[in-house]
Structures
1.
Amino acid sequence: MKNIKHNVIKNSISLLRPFNHFFKHKSFSSIVLLLFTIIAIFLANSNLADEYQTILSLHLSIGIIDLSILHWVNDGLMTIFFFVIGLEIKREFLFGELKSLSATILPIAAAIGGMIAPACIYYLINYGESTAVGWGIPMATDIAFSLGVLSLVAGNAPRSIAIFLTALAIVDDLGAIIIIALFYSTAIQFTALSYGLAALLAAVLLNKYNCQNAFSYIGLGLIAWFYFYHAGIHPTIAGVILGLTIPAQDTRDINKSLLHKLEYYLAPWSAWFIMPAFALANAGIQLHFAEISNLFAPEGIGILAGLALGKPLGIFGTAFLLLKAGFVKMPEKTTYYHFLGAGALSGIGFTMSFFIASLAFADIPQYLTTAKLGIISGSILASLIGTIIFKLIDYKHT
């Protein structure tokens, strides 16, 4: 009997270990991300501003591809970031918090509500304006920042809320990826696209035959990236799809699967190098009075309101309705206020919001600057609202 009990406890701990690693990994990386954001803003407003912009504009040729440093970060490094997201999404749906249907209903529905509400708020504020195209910007959640703030301000929050926010953010990432593919790609060149899809189909076939050779998938991924880029589909989409094709099981040991190995080796690079590099390249906005006053332009207000109000409204509203209707059960030691706090923290858009903004306003620098200011302001406000809610919950229970 003791052996059975010991095995149950041991298995339970082993099942929770990946989540513990994921949660802490994302939480701590948010500090580095914040640091590089501050550095970017400092550089953009210092005597080094011209040099900062010059470096980002420098062109670098790799093979037959010639891009600026900024585009290598946004189109190249971010493809690896999205590839890791693809790995995470597949793992969560096969083995993680999104494995069972009952466990996925609440975070999936809440994530959808949390995407629809901010998009609607933004679109209503920008209706009839050329800036209306940016409706996808406030829909995103930065998983690193949101989990980082949660770990700092909600130490006494039930584990179910951390799991809920993690699952919600992953579904949110998937939604953002779909939106980028459908609405923020340029005129599609179908011949090039067909070649890119053929490369990804070859990766699917490798998966079918349980090929565990990473270089085979990397080679096909590079081909897909090249043709997606020339097809007018943002090449990061190729990264996500490639991540979904990676084998998740090894016939000998599940922990030796290619998915497990690639996520283990690439996730730290994504969190500690790629995301900070993205922040350094994209967060440098000039904080002159004229620029700050643009925050009150429709696109600025739309993003700020979408992140700080739309996100918690959509997430909490959806969760409240599902719980009240009895479609899902309230997790143990969890209250409606916890969902409200989690909804507020999901309004920290940052990385993915910056990325969508760079696509929506690629040809309009003024709108892009205002959008970045709105993202930073909205994310700060959302984190403050979430912090206050969780501190009030702690005060109420003391």
Note: Residues 2-44 form the longest helix (43 residues).
2.
Amino acid sequence: MNEFSLFASCPKGLEYVLADELKTLGAEVLKTNPAGVEAKADLAGVYRICLGSRLANRVLRLLQSTRTATRDGLYQAASEVNWSEHLRPGESYWIAAFGSSGDIRHSRFGAQVVKDAINDHFRDRDLELPVIDKQSGVQTVQLNLAKTITLGLDLAGRSLHQRGYRQEGAAAPLKENLAAAILYRAGWPELCGEDGCFVDPMCGSGTLVVEAAMIAMNVAPGLLNPHFLFEKAPWHDPEVWRGVYEEAMEKAVLGKRRWRGAIFGCDLNPAAIRTAKRNLSRAGLDRWVKLETSSAMDFTPDTEGCGQRLLVCNPPYGERLGQELELRSLYRALGRRLKTAYGEWKAGIFTSSVNLAKEIGLRADKQYHLYNGPLATTLYLFDVYGNRPEVEAPRKPQNASLEGISEQAQMFRNRLSKNLAKWSKWAKKQQLSAYRIYDADMPEYAVAIDWYDGGIIVQEYAPPKSVDEEKARQRLLDVLEVTPAVLGIDGGQLFLKQRKKQKGMLQYEKTDSSRKERTVEEHGCRFWVNLSDYLDSGLFLDHRPTRYWIQKHSSGKRFLNLFCYTGAASVHAAAGGAATTTSVDMSQTYLSWAERNFHLNKLSGPHRFVRANVLEWLKAERNTYDLIFLDPPTFSNSKKMEDVLDVQRDHAGLIEDCMRLLAPGGVLIFSCNYRRFKLDSGIEERFAVENHTAASIPEDFKRNERIHQCWHIRHSA
């Protein structure tokens, strides 16, 4: 019988496991690579692979390959295929093309070249041309454009991970072939026998328990959806196919009859358990698997009469830092549960987080690196009977919430506790309920921590490239764990802000999508702040002395606030008795926020809120002002502005426009947070300029004296 050249693709990291599986299904393995396995098999072997592979994605019959990445080279390679052996005259087919190679930069162009070769093949033989039809193609030709260009016939017409039992899922489900690979690596095919016991204590929609049952009872995964494109191929042999199919059916029936073991799944989410039950029912395995709505920490399986025992679970990964922090206690509890309730078991924990895996508190015997889609993950295998519960020394009650932190994290805790005592006492005297309590006091913990009357913002400073990313991440997790405990707040009141470019799952996200508003007090004024929905809170704490200066010097003055943000300086001016205030900003969101701040302080009178491009508004304004606050952004290219604002380039013009509106005897306060900013020398020549930077930096920001610069500018006498 003819042999077929095959390529079976698989998720990255599974190629060697797949190679072993293909051998058991009757194939001869030729070569492996990160994308899959090349093999050859007879027709019955092809059928067994499509019906029985638990690990493969696509299975292709290889037709041709070439390393000549030109239009003519591809056409020549495609022309050498005997297409009438694979496609019938007049029938529909589709060309699935992927990648690019050499001169063939677009996959659609490559597909067109192959189509031309196919048409010419049938035309030269006076046969009716097959028809391209993506929706109802009887066959699928796959073109992979890479260093080596390959042409193949998709034998199944789908990825084999699509068993058919999972038509819905809980959050973040595992693909079926990855679940099977985890079970293979954990040794379940050898452990299950006829009386093995399997538990997934966080089963979600049940993928692991379904796959465990199919392996234990020798149910070929393709039996649940036994329809493949090869059945429409000209070379298909129905008799051989029937024999392979019936053989698989007999093995499944016998496997179910002989099975004396136990398979359990539990999950806290009742909806997930309901989904898992439906998946098991569709797989025809609900009689053999017991599901329960329960916490993994409370669930105790009935293992009487069972042989070897395996627990495998895929707990939440914590792909974002805030989530990972919350999950530390879960992994610690899971480790304790394994030690106390699964003392004679083997266990496998599948996670992407090295930090969380350490929290389990058990020594892994083996580790296998796999990929869950693009996410690098690790399967940690434990012989739990080889580990014993640790004897823990009693801890002081006040440290209970910080159980298990590192020595370095303990040093951070001590520093934060001292800072809290110092700055809370200082803030009370100053009538402040929003202030900075930590600013990279320890270089290893390079964060700023700001207190907002019961809420916390943690800002991470981007670590230098010389600092190991994983160490920096671990230190940030220490901060996120220690800070709420020291400050006596719920973790939900801590919000992480990161002002740096990040990759993938570590991209900055709001800690909570809901609005987290509260009011804070500053020198007798109150302000709305929002800790979650914006990168900034609505109140720049480092400008506090300037706002207080404005309050004390605004009585009877006409006050102008440019780039006003949420209008905090305007509130201070109005509270100080300003005759009028005018607040200008391009953002209606911030202007509305400013108005709310005025209402909060019960301030009424001639106070204007102007939505405008400040640069344009300044040139058109004709009123004069006694006190002007100019605090422009370093850079702005808002879609609402035709011009791009660059504070270093444009500040001289801005200041001159402001001075045109400044009344004799008035003061322009100019502030800038661009660290490399240099004031234009022409400004100092034309006007009376005083550097007020030192006086404008509040005590709680003295560790960062370059946070802004500030000048008072007057008309020359």
Note: The domain at 3-154 is CATH 3.30.2130.30 (VC0802-like).
